[in-house]
Design a protein that fits this description.
The chain is α/β, with parallel strands linked by helices. The protein is built from 13 helices and 26 strands.
Length: about 575
């Protein structure tokens, strides 16, 4: 593929109701508008044929599309008329159900410039009431060969959990097309752009505007759900996102719109981080087996998780001995002010967390650092997370006043520590049960992989200490860490050389709100306290990690599409071979 070649693509947002003809007219109008702006591809929202609200399965079946019918036929004809790709999402009826019954799926369909169906994908993760009348996918969606390169399809809730997009990217997709039917404000602010950045792919996402429920029933539904009526409208902000997480085009919050951007899909073949680490080659598929295994209860927590604890991010100044002394002072202050968990940046006394001579880690010096830090904790019940160069490689330690209670070796290779970290020898993510909850410690290179915190969630972790190195990229602070907290329901306390933050789980979560705090449009974004230099204190809520139902029947962790996620544990194919077989 010509890496310099650009393509104009579009995302369209508009309202959909219960009138099938009006809905079709809206789809065709948006296709025409995108073509007028020179787009070779347009993405339409989720559930274009009918509101995603049905009284029963019979009504859902009656409203569903069928291949080549009076709804999809004109869409295909418009794709051919304009010589463009059209991604549409509808409820689709087809055979293959139990005892000869028809299946009804939430289907992403991609029509090619000749009007034929280039590829299709059924939705794997259904949201709330969708579970009542629709059937989930039975196989993962394909990576489709197109003029733009390899393309993957997904929709809405599939982007609120990491597995679907990750699997498509691992199977070679360079461009992901997302159709949404969402009133959540954190879709555009967090869930859409993070899938581009963590997978280093382009994402084109189209959301709805206007009421998402029948207009004559919004009042009753609003009262029953405890959600303000004005919050039950599509959140708009359809967008096109680059592989570094930059939003290059975005529609307004309200109103019908088509946004376009010129993109270079081939740049998504480059998976190198800023420090030279290949983000995909560094993955450890053998570690991720629990993610693709049937849901199982995590080991029981013997005590009762605390409703709230105080945590601290410590970012000492200077380097060498001065940084160690400053860290000890700040750790002692944090412990004295009641912090239960204190976190230091990765290898905090070296600039950027990089050893001056990685061939000869100064293990003796590290032991002195450890002694000084233990002294700062003397007599305190606090735990301190830090990383050290140990004889067996790079490791994170969780320290109590009596010494380490957990030693977590680095799980993923990184260019900064190449030659001495020996990440391949680390076999598992470890946890420790503190009096207030279950904690894990995550090293910088491990935090960049979404699978790491997924493993923590499956192990029942409620709070993770993240020790970041100087190579952490901007998207990791702005998108990656908040998303890890949101998608896994884990509190994160992150300390880095350039920044840090505490991402606390909110009490008000999902579609359920107290009468004092009605739904505000945010589904799962954590409450974030940015950390400045020196000492930053902020609370987290371990007990909130036990709540994972984002909507009725939709569990953020237990509801992951584990049956269809084998790409996460498959060996990485030769990228050159993958490109030859998926591009044209």
């Amino acid at each position: 593929m010509d890496e310099a070649r650009t393509f104009r693509v579009a995302a369209a947002q508009f309202a959909v109701g219960r009138d099938r003809k009006a809905n079709l007219a809206g789809c065709l109008r948006m296709i025409d508008a995108a073509a007028e702006q020179g787009a070779i591809l347009v993405v339409l929202p989720e559930f274009c044929n009918h509101l995603s609200w049905y009284d029963d399965r019979d009504q859902a079946l009656a409203a569903a599309c069928r291949a080549g019918d009076d709804f999809l036929g004109p869409v295909a004809e418009h794709a051919a008329r304009h010589g463009m790709y059209v991604k549409i999402h509808v409820t689709l009826a087809s055979g293959g159900g139990p005892a000869g019954a028809e299946r009804i799926t939430a289907a992403s369909l991609l029509y090619g410039p000749d009007g034929t169906l280039a590829g299709a994908a059924d939705k794997q993760v259904l949201m709330g009431s969708e579970n009542d009348h629709l059937d989930p996918a039975t196989e993962p969606g394909p990576v489709i060969s197109t003029a733009l390169g390899p393309v993957g399809l997904y929709s809405c809730m599939e982007g609120v959990v990491p597995e679907v997009c990750r699997g498509l990217a691992l199977r070679g997709a360079h461009v992901l097309l997302n159709s949404l039917n969402s009133f959540a404000l954190d879709e555009a602010a967090l869930h859409i752009p993070v899938r581009a950045a963590e997978n280093r792919v382009w994402v084109i996402a189209a959301n709805k505007v206007g009421p998402l429920l029948p207009a004559d029933r919004i009042g009753a539904i609003s009262a029953a759900m405890g959600v303000p009526a004005e919050a039950l409208e599509g959140a708009g902000e359809s967008q096109i996102v680059a592989p570094d997480g930059t939003v290059v085009a975005q529609a307004p919050r309200y109103g019908e719109a088509v946004v376009t951007a010129d993109i270079r899909p081939a740049v998504a073949a480059d998976k190198l981080r800023a420090d030279g680490t290949d983000a995909f080659a560094a993955r450890r598929p053998a570690l991720y087996r629990p993610i693709v295994s049937p849901p199982a209860p995590a080991p029981a927590f013997a005590g009762t998780r605390a409703e709230r604890i105080w945590t601290a991010v410590v970012r000492p100044s200077g380097g060498g001995r001065a940084a160690v002394e400053d860290a000890a002072r700040l750790v002692g202050e944090a412990a004295g002010r009641g912090a239960a968990l204190i976190v230091l940046p990765e290898l905090f006394w070296f600039p950027g967390g990089v050893l001056p001579d990685p061939r000869r880690p100064d293990v003796e010096d590290a032991q002195e650092v450890l002694r000084i830090l233990r002294g700062a904790l003397s007599g305190s019940p606090a735990y301190l997370a830090c990383t050290l160069p140990l004889p067996e490689g790079h490791a994170a330690l969780l320290l109590g006043s009596d010494g380490p209670v957990l030693t977590q070796h680095q799980l993923h290779e990184g260019a900064r520590h190449r030659g001495w970290a020996r990440a391949g020898e680390a076999r598992a993510l470890l946890t420790h049960d503190a009096p207030w909850g279950r904690v894990a410690v995550v090293l910088g290179d491990d935090a960049a992989q979404p699978e790491t915190l997924r493993l923590a969630a499956l192990a029942g972790v409620d709070t993770a200490a993240v020790c970041l190195g100087g190579a952490a990229e901007p998207w990791e602070y702005a998108l990656g860490l908040p998303e890890r907290a949101a998608e896994n329901r884990i509190n994160l306390v992150a300390a880095g050389h350039g920044a840090g933050a505490v991402h606390a789980l909110p009490v008000e979560f999902g579609l359920w709100r107290s009468r004092e705090a009605p739904f505000d449009g945010v589904i799962s974004t954590p409450v974030t306290t940015q950390a400045g230099p020196g000492l930053t204190l902020a609370p987290v809520r371990p007990r909130q990690a036990e709540r994972r139902l984002v909507s009725r029947g939709t569990d953020l962790v237990g509801g992951r599409p584990w049956r269809l996620a084998d790409a996460l544990v498959a060996p990485r194919p030769d990228p050159a071979l993958a490109h030859r077989t998926t591009d044209r």
